[in-house]
């Protein structure tokens, strides 16, 4: 059994107490980091948009037969905005009563309005996304997808954290019996993540599509639209389509979990050594367990979790970009590709993960692969810190309570 684990042994802690600790950490984490996750999804799902305010005239179809007030929003006449990434904003004249003929010859003020509308729908950074979403869609939009996030996070973290603890602390665990101590966190974290991701993959797809929905729709409308879209997807391609992107999720989450737990245990062991420099590692672990104060447990787990989570999130950002792009563009995946066309007519999102990421790199460069890395890091680092520290404090409180009960009896 690994005696130097950063996770404290589960002596006298029941499975229900561990699950309760995971649930409390999930609730707190989801409430605090959901706005950053919304911005991350928007950044990763938007495509590069041209900076020119006027496209070639030949590329604009005729809209003369459309009603004059179609799609009027503020000062900009929006006709076709697809997934919030349309490069063209068809602007009316100086006033909203201008005839449709003015679409083909917009005035200077209309062109400026079109540029402003495009900028309003384009996010350049995490802070820019937070500001624009709150200003243009309302502050509650930053928590869009919170309900499925909670539904997803609670069972996922219960499976993930308790599974990891069992693999690392149980004497009969194959990890402790056959895996070297230095690789045990990598293996245990990876296996626990595979189990958790497989269970909650359909819920994560639902949440990702809700958060990527364009502005202008109420929360209830987005929920219904996303639900209808998933029903159509299931009807066309079967229930296995709900696990679309699971392979990409594994590519992202499995290495993330391995890196995270390896870094967390190494970092917490290092902090423990600094806190008790005159003791060996096993004696330092015993001294920390006997300490009734929760401050040391909170600080060490928070710092180690934040640093390890930040490093792991940056390393695995390209896989997160690929997963988000594939799940968002899956709205239009009802079209089946024949075997004869396989390999030639497949869209980039339908290719294997390495080929898809290579396509992103070729079209958008390294910046495309790491798009949204700041939002992801700002979300993951505090999320990991809050979750692991809440989990550790919850377990320590449960352990102390059980010990007092045992001594009282």
Describe the structure concisely.
The protein is mainly alpha-helical and 409 residues long. The protein has helices at 15-45, 108-120, 126-137, 146-169, 174-178, 184-212, 219-237, 246-275, 281-290, 295-315, 317-329, 353-369, 373-408, and strands spanning 72-73, 76-77.
Provide structural commentary:
By secondary structure, this protein is mainly α. Helices cover 64% and strands 1% of the residues. The chain is built from 13 helices and two strands; from the N terminus they run αββαααααααααααα. A hairpin with a 2-residue loop joins strand 1 (72-73) and strand 2. It is globular and about 70 Å long. The relative contact order is 0.15.
Structural class: mainly alpha
Query: Secondary-structure element order, as H and E?
Result: HEEHHHHHHHHHHHH
Number of discrete helical segments: 13
Describe the main β-sheet briefly: 2 strands, antiparallel
| Gap from first CA to last CA | 30 Å
Provide the spatial order of strands within the biggest beta sheet.
Answer: 1-2
Strand content: under 5%
Unreliable runs, pLDDT <50, ≥5 residues? Answer: 49-64, 66-106, 331-343
Count of distinct strands: 2
Helix content: 55-70%
Q: What value does the average pLDDT take?
A: 74
Shape: globular
Tell me the Rg in angstroms: 25 Å
